[in-house]
Amino acid sequence: xxxxxxxxxxxxxxxxxxxxxxxxxxxxxxxxxxxxxxxxxxxxxxxxxxxxxxxxxxxxxxxxxxxxxxxxxxxxxxxxxxxxxxxxxxxxxxxxxxxxxxxxxxxxxxxxxxxxxxxxxxxxxxxxxxxxxxxxxxxxxxxxxxxxxxxxxxxxxxxxxxx
Length: 163
Description:
The protein is of the alpha+beta class. The protein has a single domain, classed as Hotdog Thioesterase (Thiol Ester Dehydrase, Chain A, Roll), CATH 3.10.129.10. Helices cover about 30% and strands about 30% of the residues. The chain contains six helices and five strands; from the N terminus they run αβααααββββα. Strands 1-3-4-5-2 form a five-stranded antiparallel beta sheet, covered by helices on one side.
């Protein structure tokens, strides 16, 4: 193993690195109007997401990001904030997604992760399951979205040896 591979492996987050109750700010993203429209044109082509003029006359009074775009931005922040440096084994899914306030171009969203529960898998003792809550807030600190999901992470090799 090269020294680069060893240092990446040493820096990796394993199941044991997600203690219950831990709260971490993962990162932020400026919401760009062109990205809002491009995402919506491809995946959620409703006028409040694709047409700034039509959006002015909508319930929202202006262009807003699709909730699915907000989920996609969350996923990117999760990847950059910890997943790409973890022993992630994927996810069996999410329990809930709640869109609370519109996300608008020019907003800066910030993601906070809270570990709700962590348990070793009953069927795969080399794996742990982490239940996590994500809070997405805008620059005013207003909650715009919440998501609760589950992630599967490999257990640290030393922990496997002692189980």
